[in-house]
Amino acid sequence: MPKSVSELKVKVFADGADIPSMLELYRQPYIKGFTTNPTLMRKAGVTDYERFAHEILLQIRDRPISFEVFADDEIEMERQARKIARWASNVYVKIPVTNTRREPMYNLIRRLSVDGIQVNATALLALDQVGHVAKALKGGAPSYISVFAGRVADTGRDPVPVMKSALELMAPEPNCQLVWASPRELLNIFQADEIGCHIITVTSDVLKKIPLIGKDLHDYSLETVKMFHDDAAHSGYELELTKEERTVGSLIS
Q1: Which residue from 45, 113, 149, 201 has the least number of CB within 10 angstroms?
Q2: Tens digit of pLDDT for each residue in 188-202?
Q3: Same structural domain for residues 164 and 247?
């Protein structure tokens, strides 16, 4: 039977931007931090970035929260990053590994980190990116490297070996923690825990499945059968009798 969430060594961070949901999860002791990004914020209907950030930071002060820059050039990224970092001591600033023109942001990550800004380098998928970012963060402030394991899996690759190799690349940099980002299913939490990944970011949709941990598979099978049966009944589906079936039925009766 799988472990319970309370027994996991990997830290579970909630990934989202809906304030009521974030505060509900904040009440759960197994949630050790939070991450956001512009896509999640837009999905949640956030229209004022700073107002959203300050509102949540007033209520969540004792766990790390990552906010992402949204510029596409290095100079403006740096301005935004330094401003975001001043919002609170528990803030990590998410810097994408490249901009949209495929220009690496390693130098920016380095400058911010040596200046004491807690960086969350994000949107990494390739191992060479992990190596470059780990070097950029060497000797700097506490930092995260977010490898999008779920997107690696989307390409048909097994993300587990990739994440294991990422941990090896990061081992010489004790101030860096590896984040298993964009998980697709609850199993990923246990995979991350097994390989020694430091953090996994999890959306509300996946977190809702936590009560299923260790559930009896026969019971779960029966619940699935009942779901299909109930949905068919409520839909009013019918298969009309053929002429032959009617004839056979009348003979039997």
Answers
A1: 45
A2: 999 999 999 999 999
A3: no
